[in-house]
Amino acid sequence: MSERLVLPRPCLVFIADVSDPRYAKTAKGLIDWVPEHCVGEWALPGNPLRLGLPVLDPAAARARGARSLVIGVAPVGGRILDNWVPALVQALEAGLDLVSGMHTPLAGIAALAAAAERRGRRLIDLRIPPSELPVASGRPRPGRRLLTVGSDCAVGKKYTALALTRALRERGLNADFRASGQTGILIAGQGLPIDAVKADFIAGAAELLSPVADPDHWDVIEGQGSLVHPGYAAVSLGLLSGSQPDVLVLCHEAGRSHVSGYGPQFPLPPLAELIELNLAHARLRRPGARCAGISLNTGTLSAVKAEQAMAALEQELGLPVVDPVRGGTRFVALVEACLALRR
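The structure assignment produced for this chain is given below.
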C-alpha cells in the first residue's frame, strides 16, 4: 500500500475547457466528498461548465488561502493539452503548486518546469506508480474485500465504494477505502494509480492495494473501467484478479446502452451477463465470490423515474438495486447484502 500523501490544501479546481461533466469527475469527486478542501473552480474562457463553487482565478484563490491548483478533469487519454499550459503557468506564478492526475508528467512540460523553478512551487503527479511493483502471487490472503466493478467508465464505482466504506464504518466495522484512480487518491490521500501500472504488474499492484488483513477487516476497493470496455478492459481484469474480492457490486448508469465515447457499434451486454462475466474471473481466485447487488447511477432521472428504474431492475435480477447518492432503505439493503455474503 502506498504511503499517505501530504497534499497542499485547500485547492483551486481547474476544469480547463472540458464542458462534459462526465470528464470533470475529478473536480466533482472533490466537491462531493472533500468540499472543505476546495476554495473555488476555474475554467478556460468560453467553457460554460460550472460545478457550484465560487469562480476564482489563481490570484483570487491564493488570496482566499488556496495552496494548489488541482487539474480536475480526466478526458480520454489523460493528456495535458497545449492550450491549458498558459493557465497552469498562471497558477504557478500566483503562488500555487500544481497537482495532476493526468498521464502527462507535469515536469515534462518545459514551461511548467521553468515556472515552478522560478517561483519555488511543486509539481505533484498522482499518476506515477511506485517504481518497483511485484508480479501477483495469486496466493489467497486473509481479510474481506469488496470491489466495485462497472458496465463502463464513469458510472459510479468510486462513489459506490466511498459510500459503502462510510456505511461499514458507521456500523462499527473496520473498513478502508482503497483508491485505485487519481480522484480517489486525492480524496483519500493515498492509493495506487492502477491504470498507470505496466500490464505485467497490475494484479500485483492490486495485491498491494488490498494487502493481508485481519479476517474481519474490510477493504472496499475502487474499481476501474469495465471488462467489456474496448480500451480499458485489461486494467479492469488485472484489478479484479489481484483484488481477490469476496463481494462484487456492479455499477451502471441508468439508460446507458453503449460504451461511452465509442458509439452504438459498442453496445453494453445485459447486466446479468456482466455479473456472470465478472464473477467468472473473480472465482478463479476467490471461489466463494458473490455479487451483492447493483449500484445504479440515476443522476439524470427524477426521483419517481429513478425509483421505477431501480424497482424494475431489482425485479429482473433478483438483487438489491440502489443509487448510493440517493441512499435510503435501498442502500441499507445493499449494505446488508454485502455483509450477508461472508464465507
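Interim note for the steering committee: The mean pLDDT is 95. The longest helix spans residues 271-285.
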